[in-house]
Amino acid sequence: MANDLARWQFATTSIYHFFFVPVTIGLAFLVAILQTAWYRTGDPEHKRMTRFFGTLLLINVAIGVVTGLVQEFEFGMNWSIYSRYVGGVFGAPLAMEGLAAFFLESTFLGLWLFGWDRLPKRIHLACIWAVSIGSMLSAMFILIANSWMQHPVGYRIDKAGNAQLKNVWALFVNPTFVWGYAHVILASLITGCLVMLAVSAWHLRRRTHVEPFQRSAKVALIVLIPTIVIQMSVGNQLGVIEAHYQPMKIAAAEAQWTNCKPCSFSAFQIGGGANDKTPTEIIPIPHLLSILATGTWSGAVTGLNQLQSEYQAKYGPGNYVPDVFIQYWSIRVMAYLATAVLLLSLWGGWLIYRGRLHNSRIFLWLSIWAVVTPFLMNTAGWLLTESGRQPWIVQGLQKTAVANSPSVSATDIWISLSAFVLAYIVLAAADLGLMLRYSRRDLADADAEAAEAPAGAAPALTY
Amino acid sequence: MQLHTVWFVIVAVFWVGFFVLEGFDFGVGVLHRVIGRDETERRVAINTIGPWWDGNEVWLIVAGAAMFAAFPGWYATMFSALYLALVLVLLALFARGVSFEYRGKRESARWRAGWSWALAIGSALTPLLIGVGLGDLLHGLPINAQHNFTGNFFDLLTGYGLMTGVTLLTLCLLHGATFLALRTTGEIRDRARAAGRRIGVVAFVVNLAWVIWTLVVIGGGTLPEPTQIFGMFGVIFATVLAGTGYDGWAFAASAFAIAAAIGQMFISLYPDVMVSSTNHAFDLTVNNAAAGHYPLVVMTVVAVLVLPGVLLYQGWSFHVFHRRVTAPPT
C-alpha cells in the first residue's frame, strides 16, 4: 500500500513538474532568439515581443522551480532504499545539475529580469542565453540520471551491495541518454513553439497588433517545422534503442504477446487491458512495428510471453510485463499528435509562403487549440518511459516494490499526497489565470509597464 | 584529510552558504509586512531581494544533492526520517517561491495581501522547520541497525530541535533586518534599523540559551567552542551596529553570526552525520554513509571546476544590483 502510494505521489508530482519544464526550456530559447533579433536590428517591435513572451516565461518558471524542489527531495523522502542503493551513481548527476545548471539558470534569470535598465545590451542578451543554456543543461543531467535507471552503465556493486560509479563517461555516452536527451530537448522546443504560436494566433484572430504577433508566429513556425520533423525520427530511433535494452517496453507498446517477424502496428485496438491478450486490432499497418522497434523493414520482435519466461529464468519468479494499456496508448498519443502537429506546422509554413498567415481564421483557430497537444505528448512520453520500466526501478538491478522508505507509512503518504495535490491545484489555478491574463494582454499595456524611468529617477519596481 | 571528510566540509559549506544568503531572504520575507507599511514600501522591501532569492535558494538544492551524491546513506535516512517535516518545508517553499513572481501581477488588494501572507508565512516556516531537522541530527532520532528511522512525526519535535529552529528563525530575522537597512533609504531604512536592534536582543537571548543547550547535548567539555563565542559576538555586533548607521558592518556581523551557528552544528556533528538515539552503534557517520571513492573523486573534480565560476558570477550579480532600492516617483 505504502509502495503504491509512493508511486502515485512520484508520478503525480513529476508529471505535474514536467508540464512546466518544457515550457521553460522552449520559451527561454525562443525569447533569447527574439531578444537576439532585437539586439541585431534595434527594431523596438522585437523588444516588445521579447518582454511580452519573457513575462509568460517568468510566470511559468516560478512553478517549475518550486515543483522541481519536490522532485529533488522525494528520492530520499519516499525512496530511501533506492537512494541508499543508487546514490553512489545517481547522486552525482543530480549534484552536477545543481552546481552547473541551477546556479546558472537562477542567477542569470535574476540578472535578466532586473537588469533591463542596469546592464549593457550585449551583457543583458548574454543573460537570457545563459538562462536558456542553464535550463537545457539541467535537463541533460536529469536525463543522465534517468537513463541510468533505464539502462545502467558504468557502475559496480560494492561490498555493502550498493551501486557505485565506476566510469563517469559511460553515463554521458549511454545510448539511452543520448537519444533520450535529444528527444526531451526537441519536445521542449516544440512545446515552446506551440505556446508561442497559440498566443500569437489568439491575437491575430482579434486583428489587434497584427504586425508583431505575425512575427512571433513566424518565429514559432520556423523553429517548429524542422524540430517536429527531426523529433519524429529521433523518437523512432529512441524506440529502437529501448527495444534493444528494454524489450518489454516496446513489445508492450504494441501489446505484442507473441513473437513476430515482420511485425505490424495497429492503428488502434479495442480491449487489451492487463488480462486481455487478444484485443481486437484495427487497421494493422504492415512492417511498421518492425521499423519502430528494430529500424529494419522485417525485423523480429520478441513477444511479451517469451520475454516473461526469459526474465523469470534470469531474475526469478514474478511478473515482468509492464502495464500494456499505458504502453500501447502512450506511444499512439505521441505518434498521432506529432503527426497532427507536423501537418499543422506545414500548413503554417505554406501560409507564411503565401503571405496569408494573419487571415487564415481556421488555421489560427486550430493553432490556439494545438497548445494542449505538447502537454499530452510530453506526459505520454514519460508514461511510456517510466511505466515501461516497471517492475524495475533500476532496470535489472532493483525492483520498485522493494525501493520505498520503510519508515514512511501509508498514512504519511496520504497526508503528503493530499497536501501536494491541493497545493498543486491552487498553483495551477494561479498559473493558468495569470498565463491567460498576460497572454491576452494588449501590447500597449505591456509597454506601459515596461516604460523606462526618466534619467536619474528610481526605476520602476519589478516585483 | 580523507575524501569523505572533504565532502562533509563541502556539504557543511553549502548549508552555511544557504543560510547566509537565503537567511536574509527569509528575514526580508517575514519583515516586509512589518517594515513596509503600505503597498509601495512592501514592494520596495521585496525588491531588495528580488534579483537574488532564486539563486540563493539553489544553495539548498545543492546542499541536498551533494548529500545524495557524497553520502547516500545520510540523504536516504535523513530525508525519509524528516518526511512530514519536509512536506511542510516544501509547502512553505511553494508559497514563498511563487509569491515573488505572482504577487505584483494583479492589481487586486486581496490578491496582493494573499501572496504577501504566503511570502511571510513561508519565509518564517522554512528556517524554523529546517532548524528542527538539523537540530535533530545532533540530538539524535530513533534509528535502527539498518539505518531506518523507527519513530513518528512527533519524535521529530525534540526540545533541542525546536530550540534550534527558533534560534535559526531569530537569526534569519536579524539578518533580514540588517539586510533591509543596507538596501533601502529613508523611513524604511530607519524602521529596519530599529527592528534590527529589537530583534537582536531577542536573538542574543535565544542564541545564548541554544549554545548552552548544545553544550549539554553534545556532552563532554563544558567550555563553549570558539565558533560559538564568535557567533555570540556576531549577534551583539549586529545589534549594536544596526542602531549606529554602520549598515554594511551590521549586515556582515549578522552574516557571521548565522554562519557560525550553522558551522558549529556541523562541527559538533562530525564525525557523525546523524545520531541514533536508539543505540550509538547505529549512528550514521562520514564513513558508513559515504559513497565510494571514485564517485567522490568525480564530484571533487566537478566542484573544483564549477564552483569558482559560480561564486564569481553570483558575486557579480550582487555587485550589479548593489544600489539601494527606493520607491519610484509617483
Summarize the structure.
Chain A is mainly α and 463 residues long. Chain A has helices at 2-41, 44-78, 80-114, 121-150, 168-172, 175-206, 210-245, 247-253, 288-294, 304-315, 324-354, 361-369, 372-387, 410-439, 443-450, and strands at residues 155-157, 163-165, 265-270, 280-285, 392-394, 398-399. The longest helix of chain A is centred in the first third of the chain and has 40 residues, at 2-41.
Written account of the structure:
The complex is a heterodimer of chains A (463) and B (330). Chain A has 463 residues and is mostly helical. In chain A, 72% of the residues lie in helices and 5% in strands. Chain A has a domain at 2-221 and 409-450. Chain B has helices at residues 3-35, 39-49, 53-70, 72-81, 83-103, 109-139, 153-156, 159-183, 186-218, 226-242, 247-269, 293-320, and strands at 272-274, 284-285. A two-stranded antiparallel ribbon of chain B has the order 1-2. The mean pLDDT of chain B is 91. Classes of the chains: A mainly alpha (463), B mainly alpha (330). At the A-B interface, helix 2, helix 3 and helix 14 of A face helix 2, helix 3, helix 4, helix 5 and helix 12 of B.
